[in-house]
Give the backbone structure.
Amino acid sequence: MKTAIIRGKYLNKFEMQNYEPIAKKAGITAFASLKPLHGDFKLPVKKVFSPMDLPNFPKKMPILNRIFTDALYLPGLEPMLKGFDIVHVRETYFRITQQGIAAKKKGYVKKVLCTCSETIPFNHEGIRGRKAFKKNAHKNVDLFHCLTERAQDCLLKEGVKKDKIRVVGYGINLKRFRPDKGLRKDASMINLLFVGRLVPEKCINELVDIFEILKKNFRKISLTIVGFGPLEKILKKKIQDKPMLRLAQIVKRDYAMMPLEYNKADIFIFPSCRTKHWEEYYGMALLEAMASGLPVVSTDSGAIPEVSGGNALIGPQKNAQALYDNIKSLISSESLRREYGNKAYTWAKKNFDAEKQAEKLYSLYEEVLLRK
């Protein structure tokens, strides 16, 4: 078996930890852009120029997406796929998926498998050509791999037949992400943690406002925000300007350092909220926090209730009072923190072991090769 995983700019460690355990027996080679999100993978990687590698300029992505229909494009990819049995692409509206289908039609590869995480039916069809991209994928992809039941429902509503869809969630490395409270320095301080992109849809600005209110009632609490994004400067200024926020901080961490951040925390907060074109489709940080034995406060955005499996305190999205109440309940009760931390860890250990999920993904490769 020879498998080409095509991810371009979006090649990342979060996803690839689910394929590295089967890299040799599945004959995996990943195809990335020249500047992928991460490097240092335990599988072969070939790098190809992508328009997404261009230096940033005003309205870069909207411009590129209108020029190429989708900027996740690797010019000249198709001939490079000669001799592979499977081309494994992602999302029906990505241009790399169209390239995988084109390679199959030219006889370069045998089968096309497409991983889908999108949870909003008929989304991303506003750009000219993307609706045709999706229609082509629905017809010519041999097997769809969905991360959640919610993603499967999305494909079903768009017209894909159920016998072409399999649901297999991603996992994480449970040897790295695991409880270790021996790293705590001050047992009397309750540390709140957020991990994710600093963008409006993560509702991080609202979380900082809630932390300010909580500080009026709980002196010994802190907030660590791990991430980067367009809201970073705004959030840093807010923290600097308000004395009540002096125990809040924004930090950047290499992925290798993330287990330490989770193990320094007491409560994980994931306050995502839906926008017109996005909702939380999976949440790898959610998995990492649960595997680290943290009690989780989150919202009902997208697939969060499904992924957390009833083992987190879930409130309505964009509801500051509900978010405040759930965080407050955990701060106020050590026994409740312990209860939800244990539930989270048990759920993650059962459902999100990357090595076990990798074997399920390998079964998809075997299945797609046998499909007629």
